[in-house]
Amino acid sequence: MNKVNRIICRAGTVLLALTVIPNMIFNTLIYIVIDPGLGEKSPMMWGESISIAYACHMLGPGGPLEGIVKAPEGDVSAVLFDLLRPAAWAGILIALAVLLLLAIAVIAAASNKKLPLLILAGLGIVSVAAAFFLFGKFVDAVQAPDFNLVSLLGDGMLTTLLGAFLKPRVDTLQLSKGISMLFVIFGAVLVWVGGFIVTTPRELKK
């Protein structure tokens, strides 16, 4: 019975941890709403749910926003990179959380040890929480009254014309379902593994 319990615990942990793969692929990671700034109560809001595939399409070679990530003449790129620094660290922490879940799956598949699984799950929850905090700093920066979205396009005639007629602002920017689900996955691992530790008699743990 002890052997069966260990197999069930390990298999369940592997399955729970690997749910991170479809979660990160199919769930949206960021939700953003842009107000074009046509008036105080503009009815024309642009909203988008962003996934990894969508971001690669928009920012990659040939994408509509390819120029934003290139270094233009002047100091626009430095301003942009400074602005994106908290979001970049948030992305690194989210990537770390994904790696921790993959590590949990590997350890659970290869070993009966449960304490490392609990430690990694706890670290994952901390990483995701820190990512939300840093992304909040980024949101505060882009929603500041003096932040100008048009300035990210560089210094040119088009930028000048757009700035004269439009004052776009970020109305909503938040980490979406795909990131929040990481809390659920880590929590499920903690409950699953912890439940086996608590309910297994001491003599069977040896």
Entry summary:
This protein has seven helices and three strands. It is mostly helical.
So what's the overall shape?
elongated
- Computed CA radius of gyration, to the nearest angstrom: 22 Å
With strands numbered from the N-terminus, the spatial order across the biggest sheet is: 2-1-3
| Helix content bin | 55-70%
What summary fits the major beta sheet? 3 strands, antiparallel
| Overall SS class | mainly alpha
Number of H/I helices: 7
Give the SSE string.
Answer: HHEEHHHHEH
Quick check: average pLDDT? Answer: 78
Uncertain spans = 71-76
How much of the residues is beta strand, in percent?
A: 5-15%
Give the end-to-end Cα distance, rounded to a whole number of Å: 13 Å
Q: Number of DSSP strands? A: 3
- How many domains? The number is 1
Description:
With 206 residues, the chain is mainly alpha-helical. It has one domain. It has 7 helices and 3 strands, in the order H-H-E-E-H-H-H-H-E-H. The protein has a 3-stranded antiparallel β-sheet. Helix 1 packs antiparallel against helix 4, helix 1 packs antiparallel against helix 7 and helix 2 packs antiparallel against helix 7. The two termini are 13 Å apart.
Describe the protein's topology.
Elements: H1 2-18, H2 20-26, E1 30-35, E2 46-50, H3 52-59, H4 76-110, H5 115-142, H6 157-165, E3 169-175, H7 177-199
Antiparallel strand pairs: 1-2, 1-3
Keywords for this entry:
three-stranded antiparallel beta sheet; 206 residues
